[in-house]
Amino acid sequence: MALNILPLFHRVAGQRVVVVGDGHAADAKRRLVERAGGMCCGETEAHHARLAFVALDDPPAAEAAALRLRGKGLLVNVTDRPELCDFTVPSVLERGPVLVAVGTGGASAGLAKQLRLRLEAILPHTLGALADALHAARGRMRERWPDPTARRAALDAALTNGGVLDPFDQDASGKVENWLNGSDETSGGQTVEVQLRSEDPDDLTLREARLLGTADAVMHDPEVPGSILIRARADAVRLAAGAGQPEGARLIVVLRAPQ
After folding, report:
1. Burial class (CB in 10 A: 0-12, 13-18, 19+), 68
2. What does the alpha-carbon distance between residue 245 and residue 154 come to, in Å, rounded to a whole number?
3. How far is CA 132 from the centre of its chain?
4. Are residues 28 and 21 in contact, defined by beta-carbon separation less than 8 angstroms?
């Protein structure tokens, strides 16, 4: 099943969102909208809205409502009808401003829920406090590291596993001030070579996956599959193997294709 979807977070605070239907499913959508600060309205107010939820038990009625709303320019979600949806609703884990959304593109809401519950047990409740502290410190971070590349490298180093602001450290939010006032600087450029054992990204070790996910630049053999390269940051520089190292890169990962 191809899931050609683009994950986004949509701000609805103070905005009208259409909810069509009655019963438990419709009530759940209303709670979802209101929890995000949105205002639920009926189809008659669709001209004020950009999003719509349709929760009708009758399939022809649900499809007709979706067509009407889509014709008015709204993005539509139809309960239990992924083929009629312009967007799907993920299972969401909340830690203050930190939101982790698990979606399957409508393939299985139950699977998304169970994955979210596993993550609930792993991610500490203090993540929200850390996010708030980092948000409040943005100006200070710009002052200490005016160069965006250096600032990102410093933050990556602090937030990494075992770093001074390790997100799994429940006291991390209280260490932000000391981190900003400290004299520690991110280490200079480093190049790490990873010899792939297979084309399966699940065969990456935790260390290799972490390095790939934090690298400023990735050099790779042409044979390295996209399923591996997608594990790198979207803004990481991509280079052909053997190319020169980009200026300012803190960490470069060299990927070698499996033998």
Report:
1. middle
2. 19
3. 17
4. no
Helix (H) or strand (E) holding 105: none
Cα–Cα distance, 201 to 174 (Å, whole number): 35
pLDDT for the residue 247: 67
Residue type, 190: Q
Q: Please report, in angstroms and rounded to a whole number, the separation of the first and last CA atoms in the chain.
A: 30
List the beta bridge partners of residue 17. 40
Is residue 105 over pLDDT 50? yes
What are the pLDDT digits (tens) for 63-95? 999 999 999 999 999 999 989 999 988 999 999
Cα distance between residue 89 and residue 38, in whole Å: 15
Measured distance CA(103)–CA(90) in Å, rounded = 4
Alpha helices in the chain (DSSP H): 24-35, 59-71, 109-122, 127-136, 138-144, 148-159, 176-181, 206-214, 226-229
Q: Which fold has domain 11-87?
A: Rossmann fold (3.40.50)
Q: Which pLDDT value is given to residue 138?
A: 95
The reply to whether the predicted model has a pTM over 0.85 is no
User: Which residue from 226, 126, 144, 217 is spatially nearest to 184, judged by alpha carbons?
Assistant: 144
- pLDDT of 259 > 80? The answer is no
* Distance, CA of 25 to CA of 44 (rounded, Å): 20
Interatomic CA distance for residues 59 and 75, integer angstroms: 18
pLDDT of residue 168: 84
Check: CATH 3.50.50.60 for 190-256?
no
Cα distances (Å, whole numbers) of residue 125 to 35, 98, 99, 119, 154: 19, 10, 12, 11, 24
